[in-house]
Structure formats: C-alpha cells, structure tokens
C-alpha cells in the first residue's frame, strides 16, 4: 500500500515536527483502511471519528469500544472509545477517544538518543462531540486535541471536525465531513474533506420471515489531504436492521500514483448490543488490517 510506504518514510525521517505530524496522520488513515463504507457515510460505533454527524442512539445513551490491528509488517494497533448521551433539547453530547501506535521501531547506530529499546511512536485523540437531528438532517461537530509522540519529540495539535448528513426523497442519503488540524494550511496532509452519497436500490423480502431487506449502493470521496483524491465504491445489505454486510473497493490516491484496495465488514445486532467485524483485503502480501467492535445501547 502506498500509504504504508509514506508512513514508514515519515517514521524513519529525521526527528522533526513536520515528519511527526505526517506520520501521525498516516497512522490514523491506517485505521480507516478497515472501514467497509466511505468515511462520510460510515455509521455507528467509532464512526464519529470520521464523521461527527451521527444519528441519535436508539436508547438514552450508547457506548462503543473498538480495537484495530494492522499486519505485523506495519505493527500498528489502536483503540477507539465513543460515548454519547441524549441531552434534550441540545441534541446528543459525547466523548471520543482514540489511540494509535506503532511498536517495534528499532533504534539505529545513528540515533541521537542513547536510550536502549524501541522508539515510542503514538498518536492520541480526545474530543467532545455534539450532534443534533431535525427530521432528515443531522449536524455534528467535534472539538478536541491530538497528542503525538515520536521518540523524544512530543506535540499537541488542536482539531476541529464538522459533519452533516441529509436524507432525501427516493431513499437517498448524502453526507460530508471535514477534519481540520491546526494550524490551517493548504495541502496539509492532516486536513481532509470527506463526501458521499448512498441510495437504496431494492427493498423487499429475500425469504419468508426475513423481514425487510435493503440493498444499498454507495459512492464516497476523500480529498484535500495533500495528494490525489480517494474514491470509494461499495454495496451494503441490511437484513431487518439485525444483520448488515458491507463491501467496498477504494481507489486510493498517493504520491506515486493510485492503487486499489478492498474491504468488507459485518455488523450483527443482538438485543441492545451490536457486534462488528471488518478488515481490508491485505494487498501486496503485507497482510490484512482488521477492526473488532462492540456497541451497547443504554435505555
């Protein structure tokens, strides 16, 4: 994957804040490779990290915990925790926490540090989230700070994310989100804009007693992040809201060209709980990254 190459280049660059920020951004994008839905259209669980405009929880509140694991060749692991609660008439308030790090970065003989052991490299994100839904429109915003450490360098950057989703006639949903890390600068790789549209292509019963089944087509785009735009094309299957299966192909832009990557995921609802599992296709003999999550609705 081209972005893995970018990540490794950033980690191996001289200890500089610019390289550190780029590496942290690429770590978060590694987490996004497990999404089987375009970022702007992703819903549930830790999706507030990509689009803060999430529909209200079905209960009074919701809590989600997700674990992310990349291939051993990359060595990145992460965790996402999202909690939301309804606060009438304000809407929904929540907390978002994410942490991604890379292990097994080994010091070389030219390292400026005399410390032994591996090089610490991680990016943490903590933020407050707000959403409000009026009829078919959902607006959301997230305000927080990212803490990044690469070896002996450590820095914090403020972050502000906004998002919106809109339901339209004809079972169409459009969504957009923007992630802005201070300072604001054109072409900064840490800034990104997401967009997407989905349409329900068919609704009916696939078998007797299956309940309503929907087939959904999706398209998404990510741009403004310092290189060519990413394009996502996918399809989803919703079986009565109890089983959701999503598959997509993503054409990722890169510094040296574009490449294709696939991903798939499944979500199962059991009472007040939703269990999810997703992974990418594991291209270039590197192996697959995967994400496992558990979301609970609190009445």
Written account of the structure:
The protein is mainly beta and 299 residues long. The protein is 9% helix and 54% strand. The protein has helices spanning 2-12, 17-32, and strands spanning 61-69, 76-87, 91-102, 121-134, 137-150, 153-168, 172-181, 192-204, 213-223, 230-239, 243-252, 259-270, 273-280, 290-298. It has a 14-stranded antiparallel β-barrel with strand order 1-2-3-4-5-6-7-8-9-10-11-12-13-14. Helix 1 runs antiparallel to helix 2. The longest helix has 16 residues, at 17-32. The protein is globular.
The sequence of SSEs as H and E is: HHEEEEEEEEEEEEEE
Q: What would you call the shape?
A: globular
Per the CATH scheme, the topology name is: Porin
The first-level CATH class is given as Mainly Beta
- As a whole number of angstroms, the C-alpha radius of gyration is 19 Å
Number of domains: 1
Q: In terms of structural class, how would the helical and strand content be classed?
A: mainly beta
Reading side by side through the largest sheet, how are the strands ordered? 1-2-3-4-5-6-7-8-9-10-11-12-13-14
What gap, in angstroms, lies between the N and C termini? 43 Å
What's the name of the CATH homologous superfamily? monomeric porin ompg
Q: Which regions are unreliable across 5 or more consecutive residues at pLDDT < 50?
A: 1-18
């Amino acid at each position: 994957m081209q972005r893995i190459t970018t990540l490794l280049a950033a980690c191996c660059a001289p200890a500089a804040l610019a390289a550190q920020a780029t590496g942290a951004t690429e770590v978060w994008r590694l987490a996004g490779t497990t999404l089987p839905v375009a970022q702007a259209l992703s819903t549930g669980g830790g999706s507030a990290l990509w689009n803060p405009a999430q529909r209200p929880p079905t209960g009074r509140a919701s809590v989600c915990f997700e674990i992310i694991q990349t291939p051993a060749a990359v060595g990145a692991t992460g965790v996402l925790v999202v909690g939301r609660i309804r606060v009438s008439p304000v809407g929904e308030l929540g907390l978002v926490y994410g942490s991604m790090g890379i292990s097994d970065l080994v010091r070389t003989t030219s390292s400026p540090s005399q410390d032994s052991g591996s090089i610490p490299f991680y990016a943490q994100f903590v933020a407050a989230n707000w959403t409000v839904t009026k009829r078919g429109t959902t607006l959301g915003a997230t305000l927080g700070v990212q803490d990044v450490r690469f070896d002996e360098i450590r820095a914090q950057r403020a972050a502000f994310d906004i998002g919106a989703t809109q339901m339209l006639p004809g079972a169409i949903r459009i969504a957009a989100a923007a992630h802005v890390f201070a300072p604001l600068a054109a072409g900064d790789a840490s800034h990104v804009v997401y967009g997407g549209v989905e349409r329900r292509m068919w609704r009916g019963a696939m078998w007797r007693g299956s309940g309503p089944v929907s087939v959904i087509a999706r398209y998404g785009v990510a741009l403004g992040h310092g290189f060519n735009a990413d394009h996502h094309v996918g399809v989803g299957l919703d079986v009565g809201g109890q089983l959701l299966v999503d598959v997509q192909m993503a054409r990722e832009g890169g510094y040296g060209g574009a490449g294709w990557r696939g991903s798939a995921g499944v979500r199962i609802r059991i009472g007040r709980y939703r269990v999810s599992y997703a992974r990418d296709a594991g291209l270039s003999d590197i192996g697959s990254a995967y994400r496992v999550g558990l979301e609970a609705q609190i009445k």
